[in-house]
Each structure stands twice: as structure tokens, then as C-alpha cells.
Amino acid sequence: MTNMKPLRSYRRSSGTTLAETMVYALIGIIISCITYTFLTSTTQLYAKNLSLVHSHSDIRSVLDRTLNNMQQGNSLPVLINTSGAVVATPPSAGLYYDSFRGDPYVITNPSGNGLAAGTTTAILTSSRSALASPPAPAVGDAIIISNPGGDVRVRLTACVVGTFDSTNNRQPYTVTFATALGSAISWTSAETRTATLVHREAFLVVPVSGYSELRYFKDFEPIPNAAGLANTANYTVITKQLSVLTGQTTPFSIANVGTDKIVRASFFARCTDYSTYLNNRQANEFNTFIRINTSLSSRLRPQQ
After folding, report:
1. Domain segments of the chain: what residues?
2. CA dihedral angle for residue 98, residue 103, residue 108, residue 109, rounded to 10 degrees
3. Are the C-beta atoms of 237 and 222 separated by less than 8 Å?
């Protein structure tokens, strides 16, 4: 006959002791801690990597835009502060410069002796051929006229398109200056005097709440007032990721390199997409801060 164990013995052997339960619980806690640590590290690494990529992307856009514009500059930029005022001692929050528009524009010599210092209008003529066709002057542009006593620069407040000369393929423009020339520009009727068309633009770092913006102003002449500088219609934001720390809101300076002058920029950026999560999590580790030092060469920069 089969030996039958009492039912209570099976019930007794099917349970676990308190010690065993505590061991199982401890093992579960250890596994949960390991899993949590792994997930936290992975999430933090993901946030840092993504922020680092965004920081690189922002700096790339800054460099591409500033380098492209500086290489179109017709002269050395002028350093300015956040109000647009000229800064005598670098570094500065921004700079403005003359962007090259086109040349040559032949200046009509009405008297045969050139233009008087009080001249406020002039006739410019440009070629309309496919190989040499500078753009039409526009209000807000400026012309630079070479002169033995120093180049003369005047801003245009009006431009009237004249009758096109189809025989010689030439287009005349009658332009009005914001101010008189100020200096007489002399040349004989046998000579040709030309002008270069430029337009003043600017880059400016403006601190905002928790970050700084690099703003590009397409029109910066005359210098906008406080309302104009803050008007979003007047500028394009290149990046919103620049630092607001001391010394990092003034990235621009001009350095003497031998007999040359070079614009230098030091941008310090950080992506703010995960700034709340990564707060106090970047000490003694790789972080999402990017610093770039670069030189910005103008198209025609003066040399000492």
C-alpha cells in the first residue's frame, strides 16, 4: 500500500521561511537598483549626446553665417555694444560692417571738374551686360567714392531709375545723398571716376532670460534706437544658445596680426533643451558646453 503523508506536511513544505523571503526581497531590490541606475545613466547620456549635437549644430550655423558675411565685407568691421554704440576697447557684444553689393558705377562728371563738397545728388551708370551687371542702388545703400584725400562714403535716401541706353547697354540712376559729400572730388572730363555700392549690416549678441541671442541685422544704417534693436522685424536670430556668463556676451574683438587686422570671435554655446534635467549633472564629466575661437576675414580689410 502506498505510503500517504499527512496533508499538513505538504502544506508545511510548500511555504517559505521569513529568512528566505527577506533574501528574495533583497535580491529584487538589488536588481531594481541596478536597472534604475542603468536607465538613469542611459537617459542622462542620451540627453547629453543630443544636447551636444544641438550645440555643435548651433555653433556651425553661427560660424557659417558670420564667416560668409564677413567675407562679403568691404572693410574692417566696427565694434559696438548692445545699444549699437561704437566700442573703443574690445571685446564687444557686436559689430557692424559694409557688405559689398557691387561695382563699378561710373559717376557722371557734370561740370567737367568733378563734384563739389556740397553735392547732394549724382548720376551713377552701370553696365547691364551679363558679365558685369551690378544691382540697382536702393534706399539705405551707400556708395564709396575713391578720392586722393580719402574715400568718401555717403548713404542713399532716394534712387530714380533713368532711361535705359540700349545702344551701349547701360543703366543710369539718379541718387540722392543723406548728407552732402563733405569733400570735393575732382577729376577731369578725360578721366573716369567710379563708385562701389555697399550696405551696412550688423551682428549683435543680446542677453535674454537665461541665454543670449546672436542677432543679424540686415539694415543697420542709421543705427536703430532701443525700440528698433528690440523689434523682431528688424533682425534674424542666428542662435539662442549663447552663454550669459561674465565675459561670454562680448565675443568680438579686432587683433593686430603683423601688419594686418583680423576680426576674432569667441562663441560659448550650450543647448538648453535638457538644461533642467542636466542641471548639476555635468560636473567633472563631459558636458554640452561648446566654445569656438575663430578668425573672421573681411573681403577688403585695411592693413596698417
Report:
1. 49-96+201-296, 101-199
2. 70
3. no
109-123 in b/e form (b: 16+ CB < 10 A) is beeeebbeeebeebb
Q: Give the CATH fold of the 101-199 domain.
A: Elongation Factor Tu (Ef-tu); domain 3 (2.40.30)
Per-residue pLDDT, 304:
46
Q: Are 268 and 262 in contact (CB under 8 A)?
A: no
pLDDT tens, residue by residue, 70-90: 888 888 889 999 999 999 888
- Whether the Cβ atoms of residue 55 and residue 219 lie closer than 8 Å to each other: no
Residue 215 pLDDT:
94
- d(CA 14, CA 95) in angstroms, rounded, equals 82
H or E, element range at 176: strand 170-177
CB 120 within 8 A of CB 176: yes
Cell of 190: 578725360
Cell numbers representing residue 272 in the block: 538648453
With cut-offs at 50, 70 and 90, classify the pLDDT of residue 275: low
pLDDT recorded at residue 242 = 83
**pTM over cut 0.85:** no
Check: CB of residue 164 under 8 Å from CB of residue 127: no
Cα angle 35-41-47, degrees, rounded to a multiple of 5? 135
Cα dihedral: 104, 108, 111, 113 (round 10): 10
Length of the chain: 304
96: CB partners within 8 A, 6+ apart? 77, 78, 80, 84, 200, 201, 202, 217, 220, 221, 223
Distance, CA of 122 to CA of 141 (rounded, Å): 14
Residue 284 pLDDT exceeds 50? no
